[in-house]
Amino acid sequence: MTVSTQTNDSCKVGVPISKACPGNCRTDLRKDKRLEKEDCKAVHKLEQLLYGQNTLSVGASAFHQAPAELLEEFSEESEIGFELVSYFLLISSPEQVQETVREMSNPLLYRIVKEEFDLFMMLRKAGGRAANFLDSKMVRYWRKLPESRVVDFIMYCVRGRKDPEFASRFLYLLSGRSLLELRKQTGITVSEEKELYSGLQDSIYEFPIHFPEMYPRLMEIFSDDPEISIILSTMAALVERKEILIHSGEEVLRILGKTHKKLAHQSVLDYLLTLDQDAALEILSMLEENKHLSSSEKELLSSFLRKDDDDSGKKFGFR
Predict the structure, then answer these.
(1) What is the pTM of this model?
(2) I need a surface site. Which of 8, 101, 173, 256 has the fewest CB within 10 A?
(3) Which pLDDT tens digit goes with each residue over 66-101?
(4) How many C-beta atoms lie closer than 10 Å to residue 85's C-beta?
(5) Which residue, among 81, 90, 95, 87, has the nearest Cα to 45 in the 3D structure?
(6) Residue 253's closest CA among 279, 290, 212, 303?
(7) CB distance 84 to 46 below 8 Å
(8) Which residues pair with 10 in a beta bridge?
(9) CB distance 199 to 166 below 8 Å
(10) Do the beta carbons of residue 146 and residue 102 sit within 8 Å?
């Protein structure tokens, strides 16, 4: 990007306010020490959009290329400015807004996501909405964010907003390893950690099924809470089974990765036939859910798992 002469109707790089921002402008603005955020005219483009003096596509390009600090200032100037920032966050692809959300301050992000959550709950009561807030299209960009950004937001909710219940919804975006290292990463206290997981409410009993490695930690955290610890103590067998399923699923992925494509399904079937049928079928469902298998592949393998072991390999057609 070459710095050009700035006019009242154009930015420092010479792009008129009436035209879309270049796709690399945000990156170059960070790199080029001759350019400051004050040289960016993105906010002016958004303001003109509000007054009907610019097109939606120009406004969208301004949102995607503007430094997060400018968007924050714009959203604080008026309620309609805040709504416009929220709107572009809602309609953009996760890839388009990843950098913006990474740089966005936690107070602004909290305000946006809280309003989206309230709307989600209202629509869910009316029916036809996903049961899980983070599965909704409204906040799909969360699943593309690095775990460090999610952790930072969780801690803001816990410490800055005293809202551990809302923070707990985002725990599902982290890996088991990150959850285990939360104390080391953030310095979260035992009491704060207890508040955070208490925010899961009844879902706390499902949580170790999603994250088996967290089971000992949860038992430790709630050791002085008889109601929770007694129920958790009855789940050891379920957690152990889930650990086995996860390990077996990883083995299937290893087989798929190292085996020739023409033989991959047969090799996976051979391995799954060494497990009990219920476990094998559950592993296939997990792999489909995580998009490692297509629905047709999952159904094909499932159909052979339900046949007699002695006959399935021959009927599969790869031998």
Answers:
(1) 0.82
(2) 8
(3) 888 889 999 999 999 999 999 999 899 999 899 899
(4) 23
(5) 81
(6) 290
(7) yes
(8) 16
(9) yes
(10) yes
